[in-house]
From TrEMBL:
It comes from the Bacteria. GO terms for biological process: protein lipoylation. Its EC number is 2.3.1.181. Keywords: Acyltransferase, Transferase. Substrate binds at residues 52-59, 123-125, 136-138. Pathway: Protein modification; protein lipoylation via endogenous pathway; protein N(6)-(lipoyl)lysine from octanoyl-[acyl-carrier-protein]: step 1/2. Belongs to the LipB family. GO terms for molecular function: lipoyl(octanoyl) transferase activity. Catalyzes the transfer of endogenously produced octanoic acid from octanoyl-acyl-carrier-protein onto the lipoyl domains of lipoate-dependent enzymes. Lipoyl-ACP can also act as a substrate although octanoyl-ACP is likely to be the physiological substrate. The record marks 120 as: Lowers pKa of active site Cys. This is Octanoyltransferase. It holds the Pfam family LplA-B_cat. The gene is lipB.
Length: 199
């Protein structure tokens, strides 16, 4: 679907959740996949190879995934401007929803707890082919993080991953909806007009 959106340069933002899945980006290191594909299959975990940036990451029920399809050429956006504003939108939304402060790390893309920078709560992997973005971010909300045990996510130990649930914060449906509402508002502040949908 993402290639079709790029072909017709159709902009949209999608909010989704995935079944247990591991994806490898264009910079994946085989050593960071800690189990054999046969084991993943026996556990009902899918594995896919993607054209996003980065190494291995995991998706699970309870994790909020945001796919952002934006025509940088039409909007006259630089890649840096887009990424900075995408991450800022997430940082501001999480602070508004839980009063939780996140920080970015230019050496290891993603978002981390300001109070404990070794703890990662949000992964990012974006493709910029033909100046049209695809893929996006994955925010750990109430997922159990078990799928991460099969990989070194983005080259780090899986124990460095955390979630809103692990932090003992409210992860109920109303909080998920509040986060999505804040994300829509913050994303549209620099992307409007754009179609936004969630499932």
């Amino acid at each position: 679907m993402q290639e079709k959106l790029r072909k017709f340069r159709k902009e949209c933002i999608l909010f989704l959740e995935h079944a247990p899945t591991i994806t490898g980006g264009i910079n994946y290191n085989p050593e960071n996949l800690l189990v054999k594909p046969e084991f993943l299959e026996s556990m009902g975990i899918q594995i896919h190879w993607t054209q996003r940036g980065g190494d291995f990451t995991a998706h699970e029920p309870g994790q909020l995934v945001l796919y952002s399809h934006v025509d940088l050429k039409k909007r006259n956006f630089s890649i840096r401007f887009y990424l900075e504003n995408l991450l800022r939108s997430v940082i501001d939304s999480v602070r508004s929803t839980w009063d939780l402060q996140l920080i970015s790390d230019s050496d290891s893309p993603g978002l981390y707890l300001e109070s404990n920078p070794s703890q990662k709560i949000c992964s990012i992997g974006v493709n910029f082919k033909s100046f049209f973005t695809s893929h996006g971010i994955a925010f750990n909300l109430s997922n159990d993080l078990k799928t991460f045990r099969c990989i070194n996510p983005c080259g780090r130990n899986w124990t460095n991953m955390t979630s809103i649930k692990d932090l003992g914060l409210d992860f109920g449906l109303h909080k998920r909806d509040e986060l999505i509402s804040c994300l829509k508002k913050n994303l549209c502040s620099f992307l409007e007009p754009i179609n936004v949908s969630s499932s």
